[in-house]
Design a protein that fits this description.
Elements: H1 2-9, E1 14-17, H2 27-40, H3 47-54, H4 63-70, H5 76-93, H6 100-110, E2 115-119, H7 123-132, H8 136-139, E3 143-145, H9 157-166, E4 173-177, H10 180-188, E5 192-196, H11 206-212, E6 216-218, H12 224-228
Helix pairs in contact: 2-3, 2-5, 10-11
Length: 230
């Protein structure tokens, strides 16, 4: 009877969070390193231009774009150097998105552990960031990387894998995303998607997030409490 009551009274049974830009403020760090390394190859971009092109996307999925603008072949060795420099920056500077630790703790309690982190990034990066920002206690054992899926975002694979691991129909899951790429993935999985769109750089604007299928837009993690209640 208790389970039936929960399912009737709560419109969601699980919450699936993106990582970068939603739980941790990593995009300026990662894209700063990427911008510097692209300039070393001869492609000069401002940080804003770099973020517009690459936020929400895995660098390994954008190799053709990089090669066409630099004239250089992107090798496994280059990718390893990028990840090493990126990781150094994250260890030094990454911080939690304001309110994300509190929101994760609250929803972890409310949904009895049925929350997960479903990221397009590699697992090492995701786990490094969650650990450093004090978020790991709420996601340990429920972390999913697009690098380990047949397809990465905007395909739905990582969200479908997270929902399946939690034993929840994707249609009963809430996805929290801050980019069009991620919203597209959540919608394709059949989930309800809320778009996180604060005014700071590195997050897509409300209009594009709605156009991609986000059902609600919010600007601070504290708002997730009321948005997920009832």
């Amino acid at each position: 009877m208790g389970i039936v009551y929960h399912r009737v009274m709560n419109k969601f049974e699980a919450v699936l969070f993106d990582c970068d830009g939603v739980l941790v403020d990593s995009e300026p760090i990662t894209n700063g390193v990427l911008r510097d390394m692209l300039e070393e190859l001869g492609w000069k971009l401002s940080r804003e231009e770099c973020m517009r092109l690459f936020v929400g996307k895995a660098v390994m999925d954008e190799v053709a774009l990089i090669e066409s603008n630099t004239g250089h072949r992107i090798t496994d060795e280059w990718m390893l150097r990028f990840r090493a420099r990126r990781n150094e920056g994250l260890v030094r500077d990454v911080k939690a998105i304001p309110g994300s630790v509190e929101a994760a703790a609250l929803l972890h309690r409310r949904f009895e552990g049925r929350i997960a982190c479903a990221s397009g990034a590699d697992r090492f990066k995701v786990e490094l960031q969650l650990e450093k920002c004090g978020l790991m206690p709420y996601f340990k054992g429920r972390i999913f990387s697009g690098h380990e899926m047949p397809r990465s975002k905007p395909a739905p694979d990582v969200y479908l894998a997270a929902a399946a691991a939690l034993g929840i129909d994707p249609k009963r899951c809430l996805v929290v995303e801050d980019t069009v790429t991620g919203v597209t993935a959540g919608v394709a999985a059949g989930a309800t998607v809320f778009g996180y769109s604060p005014p700071e750089a590195g997050h897509d604007a409300p209009g594009p997030l709605r156009a991609a299928g986000a059902r609600a837009i919010f600007t601070h993690m504290a708002q997730l409490d009321s948005l997920t209640a009832g």
